[in-house]
Design a protein that fits this description.
single chain; mainly alpha; 13 helices; 2 strands; elongated; transmembrane helix; membrane; transmembrane
Amino acid sequence: MKTDSLSQQQQTLLRQLLKAIHNNPGDRQVIYPLLERNASLLNAQFAQELTTWATEKGTASKPSTAISLAQTLCRFAELIASCPQGDHRLYCEIAIASYQVALKLFSIEPHHPQYSETKTLLTELENHYHTLPADSTTHSSQAFPNSRDGLYLSSRVEEKSYQLLQWGGYSLLLLTLFKALEYLIHVNPASLLDRLDLAHHLIDIVWMPLIGLILVFYRQQGYVSRHHLYWLRFLSWGSLVLASFYGVLTLFGFGAALSISQGNLQQWPTAPTNNPTTLTLGAQRTLKVNSATSIAQPFLSAPPISNPQPDPPLGLLGGIWGVLGFTFIWRLTRWTRSFRG
């Protein structure tokens, strides 16, 4: 009877904990006092009760309810494993049991995105558990910093940080597209100088798509849906297209630099000539003026105005870095092209 009474008390505590976590998923001030007040019920038998009760509850429920229970169990495991008071080794055993049940429930829905994440968390916690001494009680305060001194960040915070990096990468790619369209609008295709200026601008912003693709592909792991994999494959092939494009720009810039050095490219206008210019005034008389003396006479006392100079020769180093960088990204993302679904 005493064992049955303890089992009922532990199940009641488990339901209270899961309900509190479901209603307050990020509030440790609600969960930790509840653990501290019921420390006597938290033992090895509590882990067995958790496994039995949660497994029966999850398998008998609808898939959506089972997934919700699994997510709550994962949150409970994170909280109890990082609790600053109590027996840390025992709390790790309870957290491991919670992760194991969550894995079973996540497997109900095929290819659930949290399955691989939970499996990784379980492996990390088991590795940490094996490093704890077995012959003595290890308190959580000895293994983790106290909550007053800092904050324990779970792997979900890390995952959100990686998502921020990926969205930053997409923002850079979108900004690159807008900048390229802005340059194209003001280009005269018939003008060699305009084409050279366009190539110069595009090479100046080569770092934007390069860093953007790196951020998008950074730390891609776990389960990836088919549609997302198709999109990553498109970006992988896009890096090869960009490598080829910047290779063409580099060759074009090299050829234009040779033309400039050989004097075959149209130069900017120089100072006014001294040749007289004939102006016709109406139909009765003509006037001969000297553009260098008559028209510019009022400005002769002013300081000389420097002639506008063309842009410096196209910097080819950025184009070379673009070719190498995009080719490197394309080679390192071969895994996106291995899926044949």
